[in-house]
UniProtKB/TrEMBL annotation:
Residues bearing the modification 4-aspartylphosphate: D225
The encoding gene: cheV
Domain of life of the native organism: Bacteria
Record domain CheW-like: where: 10-149
Keyword hit for ATP-binding: no
Alphabetic keyword roster: Phosphoprotein
Ranges of residues in domain Response regulatory: 171-292
Example GO biological process: phosphorelay signal transduction system
Name this protein carries in UniProt: Chemotaxis protein CheV
UniProt keyword Phosphoprotein present: yes
PANTHER family: CHEMOTAXIS PROTEIN CHEV, CHEMOTAXIS SIGNAL TRANSDUCTION SYSTEM RESPONSE REGULATOR CHEV
Pfam family, one: Response_reg
Length: 299
């Protein structure tokens, strides 16, 4: 039986504040730079949560009014503050914040799930404490999705009959603590005519694996986020590889970070593959490889 004790991986958080002064955080790996808020060009008919466009080394950068996007009060100085430039899910964007506080180092086990009852409108994926002060970890994927949701890419017509059949015979578990990211993966699977199981944490995923073990719905492919609270995707993968009943599972780590940057660490953890979010065709291709691998091993 799998151990549900969280494995500890280190991570760095960038702490910042909005007008309220309460501390929020973002994974430092998602941050490319921090700059003073530059002059912005307001685009007509842009989303109300987009303050405008900045020019950064000759490239256009959309700037998100983070306060407005997550339902906070506007900054006291709408032209002040700074930009946290993020590089996630194959795109860059600037987050307009009041101030950046500091960088702290912690363990994934230090990040706890949001309090029960936070609701679907919450923009946090976890909470932790720094110097006995509560810090909320921002769900940046949800913020971006609310402003510019990716187009639904239809991939069903591209599947061969053989690929469709091998996918249909595969039992998939998708694990992600971001509701938006989870829904994106589920939508891709459903567009392929596949229903899957889902979990919002590694702990819940292990419970699902144990529950379905020995049934006709026993999981053979796991698609897991990396940046999760309590137990991240690397620790989750290592736990599976150290558990005899789950060593055979095909594990695809699905990350909003650059997958090339994470490939060595994913391989060391025992993952079969790693993919950057979010491309429905790319996810489909990875799932076909996973399904073929599982089918071959089960012969």
């Amino acid at each position: 039986m799998a151990s549900q004790n969280a494995r500890a991986d280190s991570l760095s958080l960038l702490l910042f504040t909005l007008r309220s002064g309460k501390l929020m955080a973002i994974n430092l790996l998602k941050v490319s730079e921090i700059i003073p808020c530059p002059p912005l060009t307001k685009l007509p008919e842009s989303h109300p949560h987009v303050k405008g466009v900045a020019t950064l080394r000759g490239n256009s950068l959309s700037v998100i009014d983070l306060s407005r996007a997550i339902g906070e009060r506007p900054l006291e100085d709408p032209d002040g503050g700074c930009l946290i430039v993020t590089d996630i899910s194959r795109s860059k964007q600037g987050l307009h914040v009041q101030a950046v506080s500091k960088i702290v180092h912690c363990l994934s086990t230090d990040i706890k799930p949001p309090p029960y009852g936070s609701g679907s409108k919450s923009f946090i994926t976890g909470v932790t404490r720094v110097d006995n002060t509560l810090v909320q970890v921002l769900d940046i994927e949800k913020v971006i999705h609310g402003i510019a949701p990716p187009p639904h890419e239809v991939v069903t017509s591209e599947l061969s009959a053989e690929d469709a059949a091998v996918l249909a015979a595969t039992n998939i578990l998708v694990v992600d603590d971001s509701q938006v990211a989870l829904q994106q993966s589920v939508h891709t699977l459903r567009s392929l005519g596949i229903e899957c199981h889902t979990a919002r944490s590694a702990k819940d995923a292990i419970n699902t694996l144990l529950e379905l073990q020995g049934t006709e719905r026993e999981i053979n492919v796991v698609v897991s986020d990396i940046e999760m609270s309590e137990m991240d995707g690397y620790a989750f993968t290592r736990t599976l590889r150290e558990t005899p009943d789950f060593q055979h599972l095909y594990v695809l780590l699905h990350t909003s970070l650059d997958s090339a940057m994470n490939s060595d660490k994913a391989k060391d953890a025992g993952a079969n593959a790693v993919l950057t979010k979010f491309s429905s065709p790319d996810l489909t291709d990875c799932l076909i490889v996973a399904a073929r691998t599982v089918a071959f091993e089960e012969r």
